[in-house]
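Our consortium's second objective concerns turning raw sequence data into structural hypotheses that experimental partners can test. To show how far this objective has progressed, the report includes one record in full. It was chosen at random from the queue rather than selected for favorable results. The single chain below, 404 residues long, was entered without modification.
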Amino acid sequence: MPATLLEWSVPAAILLCAVGLCAARFVGFNTLRWGCALACLGAGYALMLVQASALSPYKQVVEDAFILGGVILACRALQSRRGSQISPCFDVAVLLASTAMVVVSVVLFASAKLETFFVQACCALVTWRATLSFARQAVTTSDRVLTAAFLFIALVLTGQCILYVAAPIPPLATGEWRTSVWGILIQYTGLLGSIVLTFAVFIATSCDAIEKYRRHAHTDALTGLLNRQGLDSLLASVSGRLFSDAATSTALIMADIDNFKRINDDFGHPLGDMVLARFGALLRPRADARIHAARLGGEEFLLLLPAANLESATAIADEIRTSFVSQRWAPHAPNSRFTVSMGVTLVQAGEPFASALKRADDLLYAAKRRGRNCTAAAEAPADAGHGRRAAGDNAGSEKCCAQI
């Protein structure tokens, strides 16, 4: 019996989802692989509706290979989000096993039910493997959306396999299977899975785009560190409030490149940018999940060290300062050595962050008055007076080197 228009609407809708995902690639969404997966799936469902009994079992092998291939491509697109190299051996083995079982089902048993069960089981196996592997690494909102979508698809496929085993299904020829309740169920399962996947991919890529623009807005383009807006956002977050609320102390290291205006005037702004970028690179390896580095503006930087005491923070500041002094600047300034001054303090329990930041800034300028290329440290606010000079005169400890 020729396929009806309603039956053709299933592969048409799947292919429409594929076209939408492929077209979204041209507006910056990374959805091409998902579109190719649904295109392969839609082609398999379209071949299912073609009447060509003379081509059996080749037609069944090809259509089922397209359907399983579409599922495999979707699963590989999911796993590639984590940037891991995925061996195709398992997918190829499942595809070959499915092909062999389809041939046996059609040639030896002439059973469309058995053919469908084997293909659905292989699709479920591939989907479960990808879902469970990806779920362990899901960290972002977009990852969780895709995990939920694949989990739903895997459960539906598994439920269908159980239903095929448990439910009494009358023997139907291959040509009659398509128009039966079970054949229609297979087609609309594919359509439902395609729609769920399409929505999940668009939601996930939208979340990725929002996160990307947020990250750009909060990141200094030259150094890759947090900018002032990013620091404010961090401090407003739950993790940021822990810096001042935690029982353990948090150290602040304020850094300022010495005589930076002279560097720009003598050697030009390109070298000035290089100096900033290199100093930012000295801070970046420390900017992990617990330690945060920021460029506050110009040549001024900040490093936040949670659960650190004054001694260890001062040692880290001196290590950074020494590494920066040892930098070489050939061929732009081959005989020059640039230095940095540091102010180190601790955020007291319950103290406003702005107060500790002001104290670190005062200590920084105290180090500059002592000859630059210095680290000035104080654990608590200075007792005498206010302003930069008062803080400089009452710094807890200072380590200075001669200006190079």
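The partners drew two points from this record. The chain is about 60% helix and 10% strand. The radius of gyration is 32 Å. Both points have been shared with the crystallography group to help prioritize constructs.
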